[in-house]
Amino acid sequence: MIEQGRLVGRIDQIEQYIYFERREASGEKGSGRAEVTVGKEMRQWDANVQGVSEEVENITNALQRAFPGFVASTLSA
Question: Which Gene3D superfamilies match (predicted)?
């Protein structure tokens, strides 16, 4: 609802907080005052999560190539 402009506020995913502002929402998508900063931080957070996920996948693939029996017995699908 914040992204859609129905509420004014911001989300801090790292600290697990949602901050609401007391002014009236405009109803326009992307009208939140803190959106530019939060959007930039969210894109950076998303990029970091994607990078970590790719590294975990690379390590898993390397382990599977080097130790297929271990991976088959340890990691279940």
Answer: Winged helix-like DNA-binding domain superfamily/Winged helix DNA-binding domain
Total-model pTM = 0.47
Residue 13: how many other CB atoms lie within 10 Å: 13
Of 8, 57, 60, 15, the closest CA to residue 34 belongs to 8
Both tokens of 52, joined, read 């970590």
DSSP 3-state assignment of 26? coil
8 near 32, Cβ under 8 Å?
yes
Q: What is the pLDDT of residues 7-25, one digit of tens each?
A: 677 777 788 777 777 665 4
